[in-house]
Amino acid sequence: MRLAVIGAGAVGRSVVELAGEYGHEVVAVADSSSATVADGTGGRAGAGGDDSVGVDPDAVVARKAERGIVGDADPEDALSADYDVLVEATPTTLGDAEPGFSHVTRALERDRHAVLANKGPVAERFGDLRAAVDDSDGEIRFEATVGGAIPAVSTVEDIEPGHVTAVRGVLNGTANFILTRMAAEGLDYDHVLAEAQDLGVAEADPSFDVDGTDAALKCVILANVLSFGAADDPADAREFTLDDADVSGIRDVPGSALRLAAEDGRTVRLIGEATGETVRVAPRLVPENGTLAVSGTQNIVQIETSHAGRLNISGRGAGGPETASAVLGDVGRLE
Amino acid sequence: MRLAVIGAGAVGRSVVELAGEYGHEVVAVADSSSATVADGTGGRAGAGGDDSVGVDPDAVVARKAERGIVGDADPEDALSADYDVLVEATPTTLGDAEPGFSHVTRALERDRHAVLANKGPVAERFGDLRAAVDDSDGEIRFEATVGGAIPAVSTVEDIEPGHVTAVRGVLNGTANFILTRMAAEGLDYDHVLAEAQDLGVAEADPSFDVDGTDAALKCVILANVLSFGAADDPADAREFTLDDADVSGIRDVPGSALRLAAEDGRTVRLIGEATGETVRVAPRLVPENGTLAVSGTQNIVQIETSHAGRLNISGRGAGGPETASAVLGDVGRLE
């Protein structure tokens, strides 16, 4: 498949670097201010050598690192290049979910596929996206938006949403790292947050992670998958956005609560839960050595099924290559 | 899809009972001595009522329970019925893997699909099966042969076998139940085996489970998936059979070994491991509260990837509805 990768952060760059290994070709890459487009697909010549028509992955990544741009073309050139699949890997935005939403719908209007790593459009405008898919020969996939390398969405799809009663889990590695360290070292939130920021595990402004917003967006996406997937008629499906989620973060979890929990063989995890009717994210007591008590930046997704009991999937919930591998798995499913 | 279900044990019966919920129709069912075939598809009229053309699931299950047969037709009638997918759910046999192997190849010769719950053909004759698929418009799927409800095969396929370096895990619930009880109660193997037999967790002849054969067959299947999936040319792929597996069971694990392990924060699990080059099953020390130390009859599969770290999937590794749900997931993937 010929890919146009929009967004050149950690995930976008990893998709550019790994696509060839999965048998795909990157024909265009854009960040917010620049682009590179392979020869014959709309603009600047690729540097791939031999008979490759794709862009040169190493050159793109090097330009981004050295000059802060991916190439000398305009982002618009990448969006209008001749690709099979648009990979939307720009940062998640809330509300109208722009510019990601328009990138995806422009691909669908051209009957091309879109694979999203950007949570905004699937969490905030799922109904609009489904409508755009209905009018297109293209499809959308978004495994990378939930739990990084963990195949949460495709496993729910394979089981079939009508046979899944709930999905819950630990869906934010930063919050989980902080809770794990607080419990292990008996330290307070502020102390561990500072440590996590030093290690690069937490952002300078950690609110998206520690207030539960990121986990809530993932649960909203799962709720949309469950609701639309189980409805006989999409018009009957309930659409979820972040506003429908009941969210509490971990800022107010005192070290004393973790010590008290430990005395009872328990610990605290930020648990998100989605059904076709509700979305909730909150710190909750879980057994200390239980399935949900994954450590550090690990994520876990627990799928409750009607006929096959409970399925648990744990793994790396974030990271460039991990998330890119989910993107490229989605591309493979579109073939 | 119209299904012909061959084999009326726990898995076959559950497929018959659940197929309708997944939007499929059972048009024929056979056990080793009898069959029922829906009206218009080759033989005896179905009892589905209204405009259904499928067999009546409840009637099939009731006949099997009361009279030991699924109907008054000949098994041959079910095999030659007009179905889209043949579900092979007869007991696993080794060596020539008959009669399962012929059931599957007869479906492929008619350009129909086959979904296997029977491990024999995929473990013992994978090369022959691949050749039959190459000559057919039909496909085969076999998620149910490895780990019951756990989507081991499809997750490896989605990651792509060339990006999976190894798959390991706990793949036999009976052996795991025995080791879990031995460790928890400080009892010896013979004592716990008798208890497991009373509970119906172990068979009267437990050798298939406790000697590691069942886990080895699952690992052989995974090795075939890895080897054939990663090969550019199937002719270059190494084919595995049970003979290629290095297998030790749990009969000789003394209670004292579990006590010694516990003093060091460890326990013993029967771990199977497959790569594209080796298959090994043996009792191994694992951390007592670690990911691989699942309890009781739970199974776990750990997938080592090139780019996305380690993925762990745990759940129910056996059971009629659990395994039937894997079969019906495969049927869904064939649509």
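Confidence is low (pLDDT under 50) at residues 42-50 of chain B.
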